[in-house]
Write a structure and sequence with these properties.
Oligomer: heterodimer
Structural class of chain B: alpha+beta
CATH architecture of one domain in chain A: Up-down Bundle
Helix content of chain B: 10-25%
Helix content of chain A: 25-40%
CATH class of chain B: Alpha Beta
Strand content of chain A: 5-15%
Largest sheet of chain A: 7 strands, mixed
């Protein structure tokens, strides 16, 4: 069978949130460019926001917040380890993006005068803008894709990036997940928008696909960037979220907080001052969960009937609407009981924490012609709106790059090696089922990588991962769907090894629970006030190194620096 | 390598009376972000082929005849 070959100017991989925006903006930059949007599912309903989103977590709206305030908030929330230029670039474009989405037909909550109704959830500033009707987000994006005449290729996955002789981008190698055919897409520039590495840890339910992130996000882009020689950053700063126990969706304090709901212990008492998700908050959550006052709950049973009705409408129609069905099955009514919460499996995600592919303020990675946006691009706490803004930057940058470069020649050796690797499980009828390999791999991720992080455990984990790497060659796939899952197991294993190496490298504790190293319990600014980078070296080995933090463009005073370390509610001594 | 098949209950139920896959409809198959639904070529009705569900609901919401019901997977229920 001969390979499918396509030639485009800009190839966008991943059609969830950042991807459609990147594709539209590349076309807007130059309508003559051929822009292809490649998607593992169908763009209409793909990615983390398949059922929309209930609000913006980081809206920087004049009158409520300034870009400088936002940069300070994220610098503190991410324990100082940020390239402020990237956060500032987001913050300055945030309001323009909200207005553009508003014009496109996204419905944000507004007050009686027509102004955006912004709510306070963060520790310092005010950035949350609800979208009670946010379930239509993908439809809005799809209309823009059609209007801009982006070429959409559904049900294809990228398995490796193609490089030219100088290590610059030349395209991607892909698998048709319905037919099992291998192909090559030649491109002048490529944008990675493949979301989080959400299928890394195993949820405590043991259900492989019961993850916080959409489980189709297996860490594809992390592995693609790594094998192309790109720098990754902050991989040790895991994503760990406070979720509804068993259901594994957000509870969600961002929605309920402004209405008076809050995170509580088993006595119904507040124990954290602020419900904004940070490593420091997760550390307090973890202590309460494991302590005598655990487990942890979301408390709403003190709220008025009409308030609870509003909360139910938002939570049961957006983002993860099946949570209403879950509560019904457990016979839980927000009016009468608290929602039991738990800690999610670990993942990699810069949308929520800071683990991602290194990008500058133009969404450029360290590989010429390769750009990244969304949950996998390292701009801390970037969330959905950050995915749109960096999608825009990536689309514009990749279009410019494509306009000044020729289509590189294809290296037949790379294509041949990749075709062999990708199609091997189909040719092996008598081998390990990918689901079984995945289960074992992800159980080891839980056993050895989950915080509290213990050096010896992570080293043993690397030994187990090496054994699983040897098993990859004996996987078999009985159909193209199973072949897609087999290729995802390769990505998950790459991400597991990256998580272990990056965590071992940073010999201090930082970001609360995200990187709590038992043997190095203190933060060590003298040695570790820097980014920890990870990449594949010339010998093909996984290697870590320090990257200094760019001088801050917004200075913090000492009071502010410490704000996220004082999240626990301090009880006043009771009068005798 | 010796193998066996394990039975599992899946979260998506299709009302075959209401399903119009026999008239060419493939809306649910297209909407699934994990590509888990398929059309049974003999019965000409949609069904859940793989137990890899995120219980996200586009299949249920987009079905033009409301033929689909998504339950929470048994392990999480």
């Amino acid at each position: 069978m001969s390979d499918m070959i396509a030639e485009v100017d800009v190839l966008v991989i991943g059609g969830g949130t950042a991807g459609p925006m990147a594709a539209v903006k590349a076309k807007e930059k130059n309508p003559n460019l051929k822009v292809m949007l490649l998607e593992k599912a169908n763009v209409k309903r793909s990615g983390a926001i398949s059922m929309g989103m209930d609000g913006l977590n980081n809206a920087v709206i004049p009158g409520h917040a300034t870009p400088e305030q936002y940069v300070k908030e994220i610098t503190v929330a991410n324990d100082g380890i940020v390239n402020q230029k990237t956060v500032m670039a987001y913050a300055q474009e945030s309001f323009n993006m909200i207005n553009q989405l508003d014009r496109w037909g996204v419905k944000f909550e507004k007050d009686e005068t027509g102004d955006y109704a912004v709510k306070k959830v963060h520790h310092i500033g005010t950035y949350v803008l609800p979208m009670p009707e946010g379930h239509h987000m993908k439809k809005v994006l799809y209309r823009q894709l059609k209007k801009a005449r982006v070429e959409i290729t559904n049900r294809y996955m990228a398995t490796r990036l193609l490089l030219d002789e100088n290590g610059a981008i030349a395209g991607a190698m892909v698998l048709d997940t319905r037919e099992g055919a291998f192909g090559v897409i030649r491109a002048k520039s490529v944008i990675l928008c493949t979301g989080a590495a959400g299928r890394l840890g195993l949820p405590s339910s043991g259900y492989l696909f019961g993850t916080y992130e959409n489980p189709t996000n297996a860490g594809d882009g992390y592995a693609l960037a790594y094998h192309a020689g790109a720098e990754l950053s902050g991989i040790e700063c895991y994503q760990i979220n406070p979720l509804i126990k068993d259901y594994n969706g957000p509870s969600c304090a961002y929605v309920t907080g402004p209405f008076g709901g809050y995170t509580a212990n088993s006595k119904g008492e507040r124990f954290i001052e602020c419900d904004y998700w940070s490593g420091q908050m997760m550390m307090e959550f973890y202590k309460e969960l494991e302590g005598g006052n655990g487990p942890v709950f979301l408390k709403m049973d003190h709220l008025a009937e009409e308030t609870i009705g509003t909360i139910e409408h938002i939570l049961h129609s957006n983002e993860r609407p099946s949570r209403g069905r879950f509560h019904e099955g457990r016979k839980l009514d927000y009016r009468q009981g608290m929602v039991e919460m738990h800690i999610s499996e670990i993942g990699l995600c810069s949308g929520h924490s800071a683990s991602g592919v290194w990008v500058d303020e133009h969404a450029a990675t360290t590989v010429p012609g390769l750009y990244a946006a969304g949950d996998l691009a390292c701009v801390p706490h970037n969330y959905m709106l950050g995915a749109f803004v960096y999608g825009q930057f990536a689309g514009q940058s990749a279009a410019e790059y494509a306009m000044s470069h020729e289509l590189p020649a294809v290296d037949a050796a790379q294509v041949e090696a990749e075709r062999k690797r990708v199609l091997a499980p189909l040719a092996n009828p008598d081998g390990l089922p990918p689901a079984q390999v995945e289960y074992k791999l992800r159980r080891f991720v839980n056993d050895y990588l989950q915080p509290p992080k213990v050096t010896k455990k992570m080293e043993i984990g690397l030994d187990r991962f090496a054994e699983i790497r040897a098993d990859l060659d004996s996987m078999s796939a009985t159909n193209p769907h199973e072949l897609m899952r087999a290729m995802e197991v390769h990505f998950i294993l790459d991400c597991a090894e990256m998580a272990a190496h990056a965590s071992l490298y940073r010999t201090e504790s930082r970001w609360g629970l995200y990187h709590y190293r038992v043997e190095h319990p203190e933060k060590d600014d003298a040695d570790w006030f820097c980014h920890a980078q990870l990449k594949k070296n010339e010998a093909g080995e996984m290697t870590c190194f320090k990257r200094p933090i760019e001088p801050y463009i917004v200075e913090l005073d000492d009071e502010e620096k410490d704000a996220y370390n004082r999240l626990r509610v301090v009880k006043q001594a009771e009068a005798a | 390598m010796p193998m066996t098949m394990n039975r599992v209950s899946v979260p998506v139920t299709v009302n075959e009376e209401a399903c119009i896959a026999d008239k060419g409809c493939t809306v649910c198959v297209e909407s699934c972000p994990l590509d888990l639904l398929a059309i049974d070529l003999v019965k000409k009705k949609a069904f859940m082929q793989y137990d890899e569900c995120w219980y996200c609901l586009p299949c249920e919401k987009d079905c033009p005849t409301q033929a689909i019901r998504v339950d929470i997977p048994y392990l999480l229920r």
